[in-house]
Amino acid sequence: MKNLFVKYGAVILSMIFWSFSFIWFKVANETFRPLTIVFIRLVIAIIILNVFISLTGSHIKIRKEDRKLFLLLALFEPFLYFLGESFGLTYVSATTGSVIISTIPVIAALGAWFLYREKLRIINYMGIIISFIGILVFIFNKDGSLSFDVRGIILLLFAVFSAVGYNLTLNRLVVSYDPVYIVNIQNMIGALLFLPLFLIFELRHLADTTITFRSLIPVAELSLFASCGAFILFAYSVRQMGISRANVFTNCIPIFTAFFSFIVLGDEMTMQNIAGMIIVIAGLFMSQINGRPKKSGESMILTGKTA
Prior knowledge:
The protein is 76% helix and 0% strand. The protein is mainly alpha-helical. It has one domain (2-300). The protein is globular, with a radius of gyration of 19 Å. The two termini are 32 Å apart.
């Protein structure tokens, strides 16, 4: 009974941390610009994960033939993914961001089918179609106009497709390397990719910004809880309950985000938005019903979860 409480508690807590990541970013963005948030977040996450790896002794040497894959992995995520998500969230609400990002497994399933010819069941294809319908219901008004800033939608969709590229690349690495080690390596490479952008575009703004302990809290929360804690907790849950059962919980992230956004940020949603979100989540559940082989499922659990 105790083990049951621990493994389900771990997976639910990881979902809450990832849900809050959208909110923490919105709060951090009141003081810092997107590139600054991402760069500081990555640096803190790298320090935390290196300490964790040192304490657990899970360091692994990267094989020479896998170095290009790690570089490509980091290019997709965190670099391109964080560019899309971070700048996208400056134009839309935290809830909207979480709903669009939650479609990553759906797009990734299509990508896996296209590249690897992975077969899905009829119910999975139905779920994919329903999820897309839900997105349309969520973002469009009755008169056909967009409910949200089109720039935010486009940038978040860019993040989604970046995460799909990440997922398909990760499919080649996840069997040979520990998930936490993979995330740490991609974060280190990602930080190097972000460094010149940060120095060129936002260092001067950071120098002119009045930084307080309170303003740093949401950035630290993003690093500690979203980029590190949530990932470690979720990896533990996957090992305890299996990939398929743990992955189902990720569909609850938009619900948690909407709830916490209402409490913390005062975000409001229309009945149409709520209906669209319900349709999206229903489609996500359908798209994941015993439709993917175990190997691909292992890579799927990491998709977009370092955000």
